Amino acid sequence: MAKTKIAILGAGPSGLAQLRAFEALRKAGVADLPEIVCYEKQNDIGGMWNYTWRTGLDKNGEPVHGSMYRYLWSNGPKECLEFAGQDVLLVGGSYSAEDIGSQCYKYGAKSVTISQRSGTFGYAWPENVSEKPGLDHIDGNVVHFTDGSTQAFDAIIMCTGYQFHFPFLPDELRLDTHNCLYPDNLYKGIFFQSNPKLIYLGMQDQWFTFNMFDAQAWYARDVIMGKIQLPDEASRRKDMDAWLQRHGQLPRPWLEIKDDSLEGFMSLKFKEVA
Ligand SMILES: Cc1cc2nc3c(=O)[nH]c(=O)nc-3n(C[C@H](O)[C@H](O)[C@H](O)COP(=O)(O)OP(=O)(O)OC[C@H]3O[C@@H](n4cnc5c(N)ncnc54)[C@H](O)[C@@H]3O)c2cc1C
Question: Between the CA of residue 240 and those of 99, 103, 181, 182, 228, what are the distances in Å?
Answer without folding.
Answer: 32, 38, 12, 9, 18
